[in-house]
Amino acid sequence: MANYDLIATSAMGLEAIVAKEVRSLGFDCQVENGRITFNGDERAIAKSNLWLRTADRIRLKVGEFKATSFDELFEKTKALPWEKFLPENAEFPVSGKSVKSKLFSVSDCQAIVKKAIVDRLKHHYKKNGWFEENGPLFKIEVALHKDIALITIDTSGSGLHKRGYRVGQGEAPLKETLAAALVLLTNWTPDRPLVDPFCGSGTIPIEAALIGQNIAPGFNREFVSESWNWIDQKIWDEARVEVEDLANYDQPLDITGTDIDHRLVNIAKENAFEAGLGDLITFKQMRVQDFTTQKEYGVLVGNPPYGERLGEKAAVQKMYREMGQAFADLDTWSIYMLTSEEEFETYYGKKATKKRKLFNGFIRTDYYQYWGKRPLREK
């Protein structure tokens, strides 16, 4: 098997979590802004796509070089071994982006990269006419940053946040990758209760259940690289058998999602059943102010409304106050809330044990963490 340079792309602020996941799969990795690079064979492509919960997608690096002129971009792209990856009938659209680079016209860069690949393939396949492009899909990206061109092929297809279970959603759904990260950043273990009091369409409880039973997030979907002729179907079959073998379906879970909107609660139930987790998660309509529990050492994790719209702010701040009052006596519970409200601690009525800067889409947020008492160790 060949060895490839692979890149797990990541949302800002999640790089360390993605890197931890990559290492847990058995790969050494390097962490940069927005990307985690590692080496692996065809099995690594299958494994990372199936298992990484917090990465955006897995890219295969074809080449990286300095390019300050279109001629340089053309010649260095053409010098790359495209025939190793693209069959004669490959469909290979080229997308691009450019930041702080002399070659700032993205459309021109895309056209030049496309032409260079065509020239290389024409020579290799001894072909003069057009390529049909009616075969497997290879989505190529040229990304220029400070005059360095990075050329990659996307191995995922749809972004990895598209798990395949979302049949419905609310107005501002939390990305599945971020929801998984929010759970992984808590001190929750599957033997403890977990509650999301702002569950919306159920993303956090569903991701927690997948984590709790060690179910691979990609178990329910397909990936574009499954159609590539140089990755043996047997590799994907074996990777999926491993996913089944490692899942712990017998792990009991105590996971609850509540929301003030009954329509969203119904959507959350549908999504959970689509994920095969409908019997494991309890969903109910409830205001956060009304939350009470006799259970101990649980975890509350949520993405409450931020009050971004004009006129909503006062109502949201009032709700934060009432939430702080409702949670005040839960001294054995750990509480984790993601919000863009910079004065959240003031309204909530308590300073966080720790906070972490994260981005929810393009919104800069803080993840406020309140650690509860640790369970007493049994003698």
UniProtKB/TrEMBL annotation:
Record domain THUMP: where: 44-155
InterPro entries the record matches: DNA_methylase_N6_adenine_CS, RlmKL-like_Mtase, RlmKL-like_Mtase_CS, RlmL_1st, SAM-dependent_MTases_sf, THUMP_dom
SMART domains named in the record: THUMP
MF-aspect GO terms: methyltransferase activity
Domain of life: Bacteria
This protein's UniProt keywords: Methyltransferase, RNA-binding, Transferase
Pfam families according to UniProt: RlmL_1st (PF22020), THUMP (PF02926), UPF0020 (PF01170)
Gene Ontology biological process terms, A to Z: methylation
Name this polypeptide is given: Class I SAM-dependent RNA methyltransferase
